[in-house]
Amino acid sequence: MASTKMIDIRRGMVLNMNGALWYCLDRDLNTPGNWRAILYLKLKNLTTGSITDERVHPDDKVDVVYLDTKDYNYSYKDGDDFVFVDAETFEPVTLSGDMVGDMMKYLRENDPVKITFYDGKALSMELPQTVTLKVTETEPGIKGATAAAQTKPATLETGLVVQVPSFITEGELIVIQTEDGKYLKRAAKEGK
Hints:
single chain; mainly beta; about 0% helix
């Protein structure tokens, strides 16, 4: 942790203010004529996820925090918690079901994630941009259907339900965008 002036705060920095960690989403320096400059910060609380606007003086001091992000692989579920293993050291870390939430619907055993730590404590988990999952249940495919045709719901191997084009059949691998759960394309066949 290093102390710096508020004027030096940039987007993407993490600040320790009033005992809480805040991620800087945006900043705006306002210098009205011969008045004192005022700095407006848009901050996101890394614990609660709430977003707030703060008005600070540019010469005030704040502690800048440096976070550690590491690659992990999902291992298994342990009651309401989930266990992930460090990709390099194979050290396990357990994340609560509250922290992981609906993200688990995109993960299978051994799938990669990034976990961010501060002071040895896990703060957040980030999924890859896309995942490949198998369709376990859907209505039968329609011969001659095109991508522009209607969609239908499909249940994937993790329990996630997504809308897919009508030509997708059970057993197929499809690529899903993790940000919004949208179907992107068919995946390459396994073993090819």
